[in-house]
Amino acid sequence: MIYFYYGDEEFNISTEIKKLKSKLDKNFLEMSYKEFDNPKFPDLMAVISAQPMMFGKMLIVIDCINYFKSKKKDTDSEGGFDDGQIKQIENALEVVNENLDIVFRAYAVPDSKKKTSIDKRKKIFKLLSKYNSQEFNQIPAYKTAELETWIKNQAKKHDLKINPDAVSLLLLQVGSNLRMLDSELEKLKVFSKDTPATKEMVKEICISNEDLFAFIDSVVAGAKSKALEQYNKLISTRYPLSILATLHSSLKEKIFIKANGSRYSQDELAKLINMHPYRVKLELQKLKQVPLKNLVNLKENLTQAEYKIKSGQSNLAPEREIEYAILR
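and the corresponding structure tokens:
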């Protein structure tokens, strides 16, 4: 059986593959489950033509995102196939052994400098789409109703009862990453045992970036003494460049909100920056007395600090370089 799973929601793609993998004989997993990373044409043909051994079903997962990249010139090394090769792939897929399942997995990394898009015009895409194909896309953070429904459904799969206010808080506290949400639901299941998970349980055991967000709020508000105190606590548990990355991301959102707060409604802003609507409301309130110029200057200072750290031009330790940028 041939499957084609693609999109930018890695958790759902992995879940489907996990279902297929669960059907394999656990005693022979090392031999019956294989993964391949964007194999070139000769290797791809060899993989497709694989014959299961005597132990029964075999599952092969082929990461193939490179096959769908938009390029001016398609070359074999970039995953492009000519018409003759496409025909050979098609013929090989038509005669795949009945005991062999092949999953073509095209995970398009979201929200990253290395974001990879899927070119649906390619012939290889049209070929694989003929089989058991399914697109899995992330649920935007502003679609709170859809995300809360997902949380409730996923809780049922974990045999977990969860109160409505706990669902809302979990989404607000953890965010829209499905893998992280699922992980927190598993923790809630263990913690709550046979009782419904409550808002208080979410506050007590689920991950939260409250300390980091409080630090960022202090930095933006210009409360430098408080920000410095919070920063020194954070660097005891977090890598400085990780804090810097979150600062950059947060400032980018804050600058956009500040610059466009009077131009768009809260719901429109939430959609434009993929943020929970309630968080947008809070940001608008917090940024009311903060000049846009201050936000831009702060981001420039942090950008300079990052450049010095990564280029080796800084004479300070990374945590002190970032601290200096905040205090400037």
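(Above: one complete record from the training split.) The chain has three domains: 2-135, 144-205, 210-327.
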